[in-house]
Amino acid sequence: MADQDIFYRHVQDKALELRGQIDELKTTTLDATVRDAAVTQCLTGINNLTIDIRSHAHDSASHDQRTYNEVIKGLNDQLQNVRSEIAPRRKFAFKSAPKTVPAGFSSTVLDGVPIADCSNQSSEQNPQVFGPEPAGISSSPTASSFTGLCNTLCLIPSPSHAGGGIVFADSSRCVIKCSVSSRTLTTKNVHTSVVVAGPINGAAHVTRLANSVLIVSCRQLRLHDCRNCDVYLHCSSNPIIEHCSEVRFAPFPNFLRLGVPEGNQTNMWDQVNDFNWLKAGPSPNWSVLNLARRFGADRWNLIQSLTEGDPVDTVLEAFDIS
User: Fold this and answer.
1) How many CB atoms lie within 10 A of CB 292?
2) If you ran DSSP here, which 8-state letter would residue 244 be given?
3) pLDDT (tens digit, 9 = 90+) per residue, 97-118?
4) Most C-beta atoms within 10 A of its C-beta, which of 25, 103, 120, 294?
5) Residues contacting residue 95 through CB under 8 Å, at least 6 positions apart
6) Mean pLDDT of 157-177
7) DSSP conformation letters of 185-243
8) Is 170 helix (H, G, I), strand (E, B) or coil?
9) Cβ proximity of 209 and 185 under 8 Å
10) Least confident of 79-88, 94-103, 115-124, 232-241
């Protein structure tokens, strides 16, 4: 198959996926964090596809280029219409004072996105997250959101979180473990952390994860703009990466008793599709994690036995995160 035909199929497949994601916005929980993350995911996907099309413009026939332009216009129009449908009604309100950064936090930026900075904060300064929900954590019947966390051990063993979506965002130097079944996982702007989740009975969308270890069992995995990450994965479909670098994959450790999505015993952890590498030969953006570098039973036992009060720094160091 010619390169033009391969790229044409890529555009059509990606457009179909984006149309599905946009349609899903109509059924997304009313939780603002989940809704905004889903909209951002769609916008990022359209933008990335536009960049791909522009980068292949010199190789594309004029009629194909017109088709691609119509595809992008159609996706933007569809997203705009859906956003208008799901936007909450605006209410009259007085202007509020500018928000201030909480004590112990400072503003920093990761790839242009502000996130919490823990560089001057010890693990003792921020309480471990377990049980009652402190500031930065919210939940609804369909979603639980954890944002702006630093030096935090976040354990989610409660059945009240089961079945809905889980969102982690704008956090650093955290150990996050979700050991209950969830519908979706959304991780955005998280770095220098360990994230453990599963089984996820739907999709796991991970955006701008950096210098971290992700351990997840899910039906679908999408990585966007991630770098320098080890991913221990059970996935019943081809994992997809876009605009990623230095991502290393290994199979989900059987030692962890988190389970896999119902009816999905097939693991395609190493059948990765890189949407930014359509050439013959392996992608330079991901690799199979070398056996010598994979963590063993001692690390998985550490994850399995996490309890309230365990020091975050000890866990991060065990996973070679500094």
Assistant:
1) 5
2) -
3) 443 333 333 333 444 444 455 6
4) 25
5) none
6) 76
7) EEEEEEES-EEEEEEEEEEEEEEEEEEEEEEEEEEEEEEES-EEEEEEEEESS--EEES
8) strand
9) no
10) 94-103
Query: Beta strands 194-224 and 184-191: pairing type?
Result: parallel
- pLDDT given for residue 204 in this prediction: 92
The CA distance from 161 to 141, in Å, is 8
Pull the structure tokens for residue 201: 């009975």
CB burial readout 34-63, b (16+ within 10 A) else e: bbebbbebbebbbebbbebbeebeeebeee
Mean pLDDT of 14-24: 87
158 neighbors 136 (Cβ within 8 angstroms): no
d(CA 218, CA 226): 18
Q: How many angstroms separate the Cα of 160 from the Cα of each of 149, 168, 257?
A: 21, 17, 20
DSSP for 55-68, please give it.
HTGGGS-HHHHHHH
Query: In this structure, are strands 165-178 and 143-147 parallel, antiparallel, or unpaired?
Result: parallel
pTM: 0.63
Please state, in angstroms and as integers, the Cα–Cα distance from residue 187 to each residue in 24, 37, 41, 68, 146, following that order: 18, 9, 11, 30, 10
The residue among 176, 175, 182, 174 whose CA lies nearest residue 198 is 182
Which residues neighbour 215 within 8 Å (Cβ) at sequence distance 6 or greater?
A: 194, 195, 196, 197, 198, 231, 232, 252, 253, 256, 303
Residue 157's pLDDT band (cuts 50, 70, 90): low
CA-CA distance, 116 to 190, in Å (whole number)? Answer: 9
Average pLDDT over residues 299-305: 89
Tokens of 25: 């916005």
Encoded tokens for 103: 């004590």
